[in-house]
Records
---
Amino acid sequence: MTKVILSFILFAILIPASSFAHMGTMMNLGDIKTGPQMMQYVEESVLGSNAHEEMEQLMTKMISVEMTQEEASKMIELMNQYPGPYGMMMVRLGSPQVSGSGWNMMSGWNSMMGWGIVWLWVLVLSGFVWLAVGILLVVWLIKKLLNFK
């Protein structure tokens, strides 16, 4: 009976201790405060520092439309080689938390890469049309009620 209790105590102590043994090699969660920071950590872990920096610079040039043909070829090569980190980086660099505001080229009203502003105008103009229809309807009803001809 004591062997069973001793074995249970050993397993109860050793199993949690062994699972926390790898925490030293993991990231320091106190340094990561936002989702984009977590994504950047994962990207750097997969790519390595140099490849991550190169890909991030190329991605920034691609988003700002300042990329040369050679840089585009290198970006395509990196995208094919590392599709996961590329996708994460694309989302991270388009995040409002990274740009510092809620309005950037990949979020908010411009979420469709420029078409968002068109939809905003359609929404505003259709609101004015319905307002005019409502006013005309009220005027028509008043004329009908007061029998104006």
---
Amino acid sequence: MLPPLTKMIPKSEIAEIGKRIKKRDMEAFHILYRECFEPLQRYAMRYLYDWQAAEDMVQNAFFSLLLNLNKYDGEKDVFTYLFVLVKNGCLNYIRKLNIIDKHKDKLVEALLFSHIEDPETDPYLKKRMEQILSSMSPNQQNVLLKHVVERMKMSEIALEMGVAESTAITHFKRAMKIMRENLKFIILGF
């Protein structure tokens, strides 16, 4: 099971921060930004595979919140509001690039590697994602998690593992193939 994002800010404080932001309290906005930016960027990265684009997407979400406070209901969870802005922004960005929209596949990958708890994710799906990871060889798991979660470069991973960079890349490609093949159940509905 993925750890919830709210381990850094208790849910009651997020609710209070949302109310303060609605009242244009910039200190509350800065707290939210400091605490939630990185987890949202990790989430966006799983869609975009580009740290700079993911950073821009999250900055745009915060900027949109600030500019459109009239659209935000201060009684609703402000993190969930930002989460939806980031998710929708990522999906729109992907569509604009004319990349094949395998959004359910990307959503699962995003959730798996970002360590953000999506309230819409069902427990079976979480268990299935953990099974997929455990079906990989230790080297495939190692390279996949180091590259995606820890943001290490392939050259660094190869050096750490004592293998050629091409070997690390092969492990990564095989791990991603396993991920995609095993995530068809979501796309096809079985």
---
Amino acid sequence: MAGVSGPGKFSKRTDGLSFESTEYGSGVENAANKAGAPLAKTPDVRGARASEVRAAAQEAVTPLYAPTQRPEEPITSGIPMGAGPGPEVLGMNQPSADTDADRQKLLSYLPALETIAQSPSSSQSFRNYVRLLRANLL
């Protein structure tokens, strides 16, 4: 019987066995598992050098006073007015209160929202939102 193991980093097995030893029992099973399928290869995870990061960042940024990179694209592209495509090109679902069903659903929530807006703990921005919602729905 061996003595007591040391604390922390000085600890070691006192029975003389290692994890992958065949006497321990899991060594044979572990070797069989390794032989059954190839082990995954770890990709190179070394970080990029600071100079490489700076060089990549400078290539991607267009200077402030540089000429436009898209001379044929209208300046209003991406906004819901003017020439060019609107926000629908972003592929995001835009909330719509144009249909009667959506309008009725928002109207059904309005009394509860107004009650919350009148409480002393509600914020001024929430009160303004409820006023705007009420003005647009009624």
---
Amino acid sequence: MLMNRTKIETKGQMCFCKIKKEGYNCSECYHLLKMVNKVKQIIDSSQSGYEKRIALFDYLESLDVGELRPNEKKRVDCLLQSRLYSELAKQSMKQYKKLTAEEFSKVQ
């Protein structure tokens, strides 16, 4: 279990197991560091904030976390769908405000 391990800091990276000089002792720490590096790579990219969110969402969705029961899958799908609609609504409102501002500037 991850909680029972000794916390060791090394060169800006944190590992929850004892570390060999040539690398990590356990595959958990290797995979955790791999995920953190992927997320950091997405965040540090030159994409817009919206594109970064989509890339992070796609990456998280691609992770294999095991199978969900059918009722859990429906609930998760509803949450993901509501999040997507929320982001789409925000983008639509920005576009609406931009178009409205352009329209009112033409009238004056």
